[in-house]
């Protein structure tokens, strides 16, 4: 599995399994287990997904069946807005660990910037504390725009290793990518397949035919070629296997350019500038 390196010297697999909108239960547990057995070494969840317990069970079963150690896996979870602020962050982190049956996380993210700048900064200071006390391997953010990143970097000490954002051929966010690259902060895409919507795009289907790959593999490979970490979601065993099988081919510069040109600045999820956590 190819890895990306963070500015702190730690690394992360470039592809992982996302479990957003996967209900707690057997499907979630089995998807995580199947992913690990079939070579995935990164699993991404969040407190607000309400499936950390099943993810934890899947991790346990997957580690056992794959014959690997916990240290071979990279596990991410996220702090929800309700738990922002002094005195809340460590408690929320411990709850996630308990749910996942883990002693530590490889990556803990602030899930959204929120609309209260001071609260965002106070919360990041708590995240820094977790990191400085060696309770978590890496800390980062999710859904932060350039303006949020600027504020964070100006008012805090520990730079996030990653920013996980909505990113797909209809929302390329090139200015954000250039900004993060210039500061050696990795960009990670959630919803890379736009809930399967992108798979019916004519350009994507054409490139899939040209490469002999599936539309999903083309989009995931495009993420890889653009230097992102990506976490496609699936609970279907065949799709889970297909989504990681993207290292045996590459896209031409022309094909990458054709996909880049599909950008419409079209969000599938909430606007980070205004989102307060009400779902």
Automatic annotation (TrEMBL):
Alphabetic keyword roster: NADP, Oxidoreductase
Pfam families in alphabetical order: Aldo_ket_red
Keyword Magnesium among UniProt keywords: no
Highest taxon above the source species: Bacteria
InterPro entries: AKR, Aldo/ket_reductase_CS, NAD(P)_OxRdtase_dom_sf, NADP_OxRdtase_dom
Family per record: Belongs to the aldo/keto reductase family.
Name this protein carries in UniProt: Aldo/keto reductase
Source organism (scientific name): Salinicoccus siamensis
């Amino acid at each position: 599995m190819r890895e990306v390196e963070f500015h702190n010297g730690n690394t992360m697999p470039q592809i992982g399994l996302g479990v957003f909108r996967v209900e707690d239960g057997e499907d979630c547990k089995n998807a995580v287990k199947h992913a690990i057995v079939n070579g995935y070494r990164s699993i991404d969840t969040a407190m607000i997904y309400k499936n950390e317990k099943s993810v934890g069970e899947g991790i346990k079963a997957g580690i056992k069946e794959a014959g690997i150690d916990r240290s071979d896996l990279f596990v991410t979870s996220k702090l929800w807005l309700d738990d922002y602020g002094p005195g809340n962050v460590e408690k929320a982190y411990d709850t996630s660990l308990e749910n996942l049956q883990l002693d530590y996380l490889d990556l803990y993210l602030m899930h959204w910037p929120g609309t209260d700048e001071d609260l965002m900064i106070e919360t990041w200071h708590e995240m820094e504390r977790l990191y400085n006390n060696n309770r978590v391997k890496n800390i980062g953010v999710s859904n932060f725009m350039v303006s949020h990143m600027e504020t964070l970097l100006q008012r805090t000490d520990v730079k996030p290793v990653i920013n996980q954002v909505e990113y797909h051929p209809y929302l390329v966010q090139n200015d954000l990518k250039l900004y993060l690259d210039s500061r050696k902060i990795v960009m990670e895409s959630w919803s890379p397949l736009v809930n399967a919507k992108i798979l019916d795009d004519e350009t994507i289907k054409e490139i899939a035919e040209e490469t002999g790959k599936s539309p999903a593999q083309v989009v995931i490979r495009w993420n890889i070629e653009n230097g992102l970490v990506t976490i496609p979601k699936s609970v279907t065993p065949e799709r889970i296997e297909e989504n990681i099988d993207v290292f045996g081919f590459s896209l031409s510069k022309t094909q990458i350019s054709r996909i880049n040109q599909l950008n419409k600045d079209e969000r599938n999820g909430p606007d980070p500038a205004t989102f307060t956590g009400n779902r």
